[in-house]
Design goal:
The chain is of the alpha+beta class. Helix content is 19%, strand content 39%. It is globular, with a radius of gyration of 16 Å.
């Protein structure tokens, strides 16, 4: 059997599965914020207008922070985070359930 025969099905499976591997961040604040994605040796900033969401590609996991908030949130593929009305970054599940996720925010550099 040839790999080429299965390539279209494999490609379709990747397209369907890819959003599950992204991290979603939503800005629920009325202000614009700058989201920093820290991948260790590389940091990228994204401006987020009020009410918008972005998907962050971090297959190995990364740290996220809102500029000026003073702390990082570790995130892994599939996580959903929210910038709240005070400009702080929270795990979306924590806001819905009131649960506390294990692990304290990482210190910033």
């Amino acid at each position: 059997m040839s790999f080429n025969r299965f390539a279209p099905a494999f490609g379709a499976a990747l397209l369907v599965a890819s959003p599950a591997f992204a991290i979603t961040v939503s800005n629920r604040d009325a202000k614009e914020h700058v989201l920093t994605v820290d991948r260790g040796m590389q940091e990228d900033d994204t401006r987020m207008a009020p009410g918008t969401s972005v998907q962050v590609d971090c297959p190995e996991g990364c740290a996220l922070r809102v500029r000026g908030s003073g702390y990082d949130r570790p995130a892994e593929p599939g996580d959903r985070l929210v910038i709240d009305r005070s400009g702080l970054l929270h795990y979306a599940d924590d806001l819905a359930t009131g649960s506390v996720r294990t692990g304290a925010p990482a210190a910033t550099k």
